[in-house]
Design goal:
single chain, two-stranded antiparallel ribbon, Arc Repressor Mutant, subunit A, three-stranded antiparallel beta sheet, alpha+beta, 7 helices
Length: 166
């Protein structure tokens, strides 16, 4: 009986995973092609002009509190957008839930009056075109994602070109 040798490579980047199996030459060729099709965070950053991962001068990643301060978010809809962006782009946890935003408020030690206001402000973010409902349900809860309009707003503010959002 002939021995069949399989060769495989698996790579995970954030929420995405690439896995290729077959003979070694096939795997190496296809894996390289697939990984080149996936834009790295650095390549995305160079294309948009925004940082791949917001970092300070020592190369350490920003905390949620530092990120909110850098963005200059003052009103709750803007804070929710910034927290959603942080969860998606920095933590790599897209889509996100309202519960994750409420937890982000707590982690950032940002005050909010009631959870019901967070629900109201999610609606405001949707009305402004910053967030949209995702098709995925997580733990029985609706999920959301930052829209391209919301991404552009945050990335402009990261570059220092954005105006104050109220």
């Amino acid at each position: 009986m002939a021995e069949c040798s399989q060769f495989g490579i698996r790579m995970r980047r954030g929420e995405h995973e690439i896995e290729v199996w077959g003979d070694q030459k096939f795997v190496e060729t296809h894996f390289e092609r697939l990984t080149n099709e996936q834009k790295s965070p650095q390549a995305m950053a160079e294309a948009t002009g925004a940082p791949a991962r917001p970092e300070d001068v020592q190369g350490k990643q920003w905390s949620m509190t530092e990120f909110l301060r850098k963005i200059g978010a003052k009103k709750h809809p803007h804070k929710i957008l910034a927290m959603g962006y942080y969860i998606e782009k920095i933590r790599g946890q897209a889509p996100f839930t309202r519960a994750q935003i409420i937890e982000a408020y707590k982690q950032a030690k940002e005050p909010y009056s009631r959870e019901t206001n967070v629900y109201r402000d999610f609606g405001r973010c949707e009305q402004r075109g910053w967030l949209m409902e995702a098709e995925i349900i997580k733990e029985g809860e609706k999920t959301f994602q930052v829209t391209s309009t919301g991404e552009r707003l945050i990335e402009e503010q990261l570059k220092g070109n954005g105006s104050s959002v109220e």
